[in-house]
Design goal:
The chain has 121 residues and is an alpha+beta fold. It has a single domain, classed as GMP Synthetase, Chain A, domain 3 (2-Layer Sandwich), CATH 3.30.300. The protein has helices at residues 4-28, 59-68, 70-81, 98-111, and strands spanning 32-40, 46-54, 90-95. Strands 1-2-3 form a three-stranded mixed beta sheet. A hairpin with a 5-residue loop joins strand 1 and strand 2 (46-54). It starts with a helix and ends in a 10-residue tail after the last helix.
């Protein structure tokens, strides 16, 4: 169960990281990175950041690029939240593929209608 402080920090980190990624992706063009969720550990030292990346074909490559730039992103985050947080949490990035999963389920349901239902006589 997440406490009020954890939830508050999670929302703050999510909002600031979204803004950081928005500025970075505006330069590259054609790529959209959104922060779908942030989970902060109880001691506020680690933040697990779940990213949704469009187009999904480039998601692995972009995620690896973001992971290699973790120190830079953490520094920018620390500058943005220095008035609120004494210590910026370590960032761990993960790919949020829930949208791809939902899309796959929708595609499967649309392409294969239920067959073999008995008709009433």
């Amino acid at each position: 169960m997440e406490g009020k402080r954890q939830a508050k920090i999670s929302r703050l980190v999510q909002r600031e990281l979204s803004e950081i990624f928005r500025r970075q992706t505006a330069k590259s063009g054609g790529v959209l990175v959104s922060v779908s969720a942030v989970r902060v550990s109880p001691d506020l030292s680690i933040a697990k950041v779940y990213l949704s990346i469009f187009p999904s074909e480039k998601s692995k490559e972009i995620l690896e690029n973001i992971k290699s730039q973790t120190k830079t992103v953490r520094y920018e985050l620390a500058q943005a939240v220095k008035q609120v947080l004494r210590k910026c949490p370590d960032l761990q990035f993960y790919l949020d593929d829930s949208l791809d999963y939902v899309e796959n389920i929708d595609r499967l349901l649309a392409s294969d209608p239920i067959k073999g239902t008995p008709e009433e006589e």
